[in-house]
Amino acid sequence: MTGAVPTCDGWLFEDILDGYFPLRESLRQCLIRQRAATGLFVLTYAPILHLPDRPGDAPVPLRLEAEVSGLVRRLMMVVRLDETGQAELRGVGAWRWHHGDSAAALTPDTRLAEPAFVRGIAVAQDVDGCLWRLSGPDGFAQSWGFDASNGIVSLSEAVVSAGDSSPRADLVVHAPDAATPAKAAQMKRDWQI
């Protein structure tokens, strides 16, 4: 990347992602609640469902087999709303499926099996880039994000920054709220659990 790194204002947030919807839809709804166009999300320990033959608005079946259930250990995603209001997401994470197929993908259409707590950084405008430099009051600065990828990839396939001091960034997000350092510390603890 050449030239100056773009800068924008943002804020840290906590929210509950709706369960049972495709991940893409739950994240879209969260961005709308936050009045944001782009967000970096950190999600830990969430049960998931792989229901590839069901439409995204179809209810979750009453009986589920082990082939469809799993657990997200940790997941970091950058989500942006496109010009039609649909969510585009990229991410890195660690997950497992209960049937033992470690190569099975986690996709934007994977569903949360129940509502899930999430922390993140939101910005009002549409921005690109997956490595964010968070700045706050009194010289506070941390890096959050991952090397760019398409879709959701395993942690073993990516370089991740989770509250570290790396100066490399695609975007600088200035969050002037006095609570920014404390909220960022909570997000970092979540990622390290």
Task: Throw out a few tags for this protein.
193 residues, mainly beta, eleven-stranded mixed β-sheet, 11 strands
What does this 3D model show about the protein?
This protein is mainly beta and 193 residues long. The chain has one domain. The protein is built from two helices and eleven strands; from the N terminus they run βαββββββββββα. The protein has helices spanning 23-33, 180-192, and strands at residues 7-17, 38-49, 69-81, 87-97, 111-112, 116-123, 131-135, 141-146, 151-154, 160-164, 171-174. Strands 1, 2, 3, 4, 5, 6, 7, 8, 9, 10 and 11 form an eleven-stranded mixed sheet that branches. A hairpin with a 5-residue loop joins β3 and β4 (87-97). The two termini are 33 Å apart.
Brief overview:
With 193 residues, this protein is mostly beta strands.
Mean pLDDT: 86
Radius of gyration: 16 Å
Strand content: 35-45%
Q: Count the beta strands.
A: 11
Secondary structural class? mainly beta
Order of helices and strands: EHEEEEEEEEEEH
Looking at the structure, what is the overall shape? globular
Helical run tally: 2
* Oligomeric status: single chain
* Major pleated sheet: 11 strands, mixed
Distance between the terminal alpha carbons, to the nearest Å? 33 Å
Low-confidence stretches: none
Helix content: 10-25%
Q: How many domains?
A: 1
List the helices and strands and how they pair.
Layout: E1 7-17, H1 23-33, E2 38-49, E3 69-81, E4 87-97, E5 111-112, E6 116-123, E7 131-135, E8 141-146, E9 151-154, E10 160-164, E11 171-174, H2 180-192
Parallel strand pairs: 1-11, 4-9, 7-11
Antiparallel strand pairs: 1-6, 2-3, 2-5, 2-6, 3-4, 7-8, 8-10
